[in-house]
Each structure stands twice: as C-alpha cells, then as structure tokens.
Amino acid sequence: MMSHDDVRHRLQHERAAVLARQHDAFALVEILEAIERLDAGTYGSCRTCGDVIDEETLSANCCARRCFDCEVTKSLDIPELPA
Ligand SMILES: [Zn+2]
After folding, report:
1. How far apart are the CA of 23 and the centre of ligand 1, in A?
2. Which of 34, 59, 71, 77 is within CB 3.0–4.6 Å of 63 for a Cys-Cys bond?
3. How far apart are CA 52 and CA 50, in angstroms?
C-alpha cells in the first residue's frame, strides 16, 4: 500500500513528465510552422509588422516568428503558446 507521500511524489513526477511532453509538443509545432513558412517563402519575415527578422534573432531561435521589437511588444501581451 502506497502512503500519501508516495502518491504525492509519484504525482509530482507524472506532472513533470506531462509538462515536459507538452513542452515538446509546443516546440514541435513551432518547428513545423517554421518549415511551413520556409516552404511558403515567408520564413524570416515578421508576422506582425512584415519586416525582415534580423539574423541575430533567427540564429538565436530559428523558429522566430517576429522581429525583436514585435517580440518584446508581444511578450507584454498574452502569449499564444504557454512557455
Ligand atoms: Zn515586427
């Protein structure tokens, strides 16, 4: 018979595992969307203002969808994907 402490530990472990998988799923979506944009010829353009996303931003995050300025503005807003 598992004690409640054991169950709690188990649940915390499960929660961490689920959160990790969710994070993977969101990362995967970002990658797939980046590939779609590459195919569509819109890769590297900011989806908010349409400007070219600078090299530095893209090399830091090859899935970047916004230029640095818009990313900063957006982060003050409600994010589309949970971090
Ligand atoms: Zn922008």
Report:
1. 25
2. 34
3. 7
